[in-house]
Each structure stands twice: as structure tokens, then as C-alpha cells.
From TrEMBL:
It comes from the Bacteria. The keyword Membrane does not apply. Residues 20-366 form the FAD dependent oxidoreductase domain. The keyword rRNA-binding does not apply. It holds the Pfam family DAO. This is NAD(P)/FAD-dependent oxidoreductase. Its EC number is 1.-.-.-. Keywords: Oxidoreductase. One of its GO terms (molecular function) is oxidoreductase activity. It is an enzyme of class 1 (oxidoreductase).
Amino acid sequence: MEHAISLSLTTAAAQPASADVVIVGGGAIGVSIAWHLASQGVRNIVVVEKGQIGKGSSAKPLGGVRANFSDPSNIVLGQRSLKKFANFQQDFGIDIGLKRVGYLFLARDSAEADSLVNSTAVQNEMDVNSRIVTPREAAELNPFLNPDALMCAAFSPEDGYAQPAKVVEGYVRAAEELGVTFLNCTEVLSIDTQDGAVTAVTTTRGTIKTNALFNCAGAWGGTVSAMLGVNMPIEPVRRMIGFTPTAPADKPHPTVPFTLDLSTTMYFHNAGDALLLGISHDQDPCYHREFDFCWLNEFNDAAAVIAPSLANPTIECGWAGLYENTPDHDAFIGRSHHISNYFYATGFSGHGFLQSPAVGELMADLYLDRESFMDPLPFSLERLNAPALTRREVNII
């Protein structure tokens, strides 16, 4: 199941010979950066996408939006993005289907419970509306749950989900109006440098001379970075979701929060009159994006304990996409210390869509060399060799 993005883009569009900025990757992160740059007066921007704009991981039917992370930097990106999502229809004229049904993280042992308590305390200090709830309260919020399997849960009522494809569409349409060029079916083959700066990008259509390069290539971010001799460890991992049939009108599903089990990574929430079901199925890194049912056994085992009525579901359709996992499951966001005009925002490990509005703003500020709402240092590539910057997000699946 995918939401089509109907844009004026065409594979026949001419690739310009030069650009002030080249952005590699036409997903939520890349198009957000393109619009934020253009809205601040940056001109001659080209976005190149090896497939179709917004048809990679950003084509998924629903994506979670939240601020209930454990790490303060992720909380800031989530908070700021939530505000932008809330105003998206007013700002861009597109209904992104934002449903603020809340997030519900489940803990089934003392270690998970302690983690949620600590994370919630950090969130509350940063004005995130979240709280710890008892197993009984969790089951009241989500009647599918078996409270006897839980130790506690964390609930953040202002979080929820939206339609990534609609967000991409809004940014692209607005960016096109400001003169941004979007190129489908355009793969980067090589990147030229001189005196420590990017000078040109060669694609399957030819060469673009440029003054700046943004790597927003998602699961291919490491490949793009390698063209510059920069090691950026990103593993592509296939993730799948399934959708149940539409519930009958006389027996609708209850409206539930976006619910995630920390022990098994099982998750589910409403998808219109159906349910979206998933689990972070363990598999080797790959670029394979075909949907199959190999994850169902793991989902059924988890559901049998957490939400018994969801075990052995009928799956009417499904979707597969790529996570872009980094070693610590946090994004790489920043400006290269070695190549002066090389910027990167990739490796979001499943959080790219939900952080894309804030990241677009942050990267535009970084390019324009001005103070932003936060320091991107915690997300810099250099953190991997700097113990003082080491941290690990725990509110993930």
C-alpha cells in the first residue's frame, strides 16, 4: 500500500550544468532541506533522486510523529517537528492526515520500566507531555492489550502519526514554486573535489558543477559518502508492515495510541478502519524491498502475549521499506570537517520522516552559517570517535 505523489516532475526534465546546491536524495529529509533553503533565499537548488521523488521509505502510508525519545537532542528535533506538522496544512495547503492519538511504549520487565521512567523524566524536564501509566491504565488506553503481561507503560498523548507522502508533496510543490529543480531517475555516479571542496557531481545524465553538496540519500548515504572518501557506517535493513482488512461498520476497531512493545519491537495502531501491524523482524542488511510474510511468526509470538486478539491476523496488503541504521541508531547530521561544502543528513534509523521538518530548518541554518535552534554537534559523524559525544537512544524499535 502506497500513497501516490502527484507532482509536475518528469524524467524528461533537463539536468542543469551547474547549481549552487545539489541535494542527493528525494525523500522527506531531502525535500524538507530543499524547501527550507529556498524559503531563505537560496537559489539554483537541484534535488537528484535515483528512483522517484518521495517513493522510497517516504512512500509508506503512515509514519509516526513523536517527541517521546530518551535523548535530549532527539526530543528537540521531535518537538520542533511536531509543531511544524501541526501547522502544515495552514502553511502548505495540504492535509497530511495528522492523528494525535498518542504513543504508548510498553515495558515488561524492570529494566524496561526503569528506562521508560528515566526517559519520561527527561521529556517532562523539556516540557514534553508524557507520563508513566499502570498496566490497567495502558489497557484502558488500548483495549487490545493484556495488562497482565505489562509492568508499566509510557504515554505521550500529543504524539501520533501522519502521511509521509503528503508531507513530501507539500514540500516539493512549495519548493518548485521557489524554483527548485527535482530530477527523478537520476543516480549519482561520482563526485569531484578540489582543494578540499566538492566541485561537481556526475549523474547518469551528466555532470553538474556545484558549490555545495547535501547527502540525504538515506540507506544509500554511506555509498554517497564513500565517493568522497568519507566513511559513514549505514546499514540498509528491510522493514515490513501489514494491514488488516477494514473492520465492519457495526464492529469498528477502537481508536488506540501508536503502541510499541520494547521487549519484542512489535507495534500497531489504527490505519483508517483497518489496523497497521509490524515488528522489527531480524534479518541481514540488504537493499531488498519486496514485501513478504517472513515477519509474521515473530509478530504472532509477540501478540500472543501482549495483545492476544491480534495474533494470527488476516493481512490484506503490506509494504516494505528500508531503515538506514547507524551504529548507535542516531542520525548523522552536520557539515564535514574535511570537505568544506559537504553537508549530510542521513542514517536516521527509522526517524527521518518524523524529524524532517526540524532537520530541514537546522540544515538550512548550517548552510547559511547562522545560529539555529540547536547545535547539531551531537549528531556529527565525528561522534563515533569521540566518547564524550557517545549516547544511545533507547525509545526505538
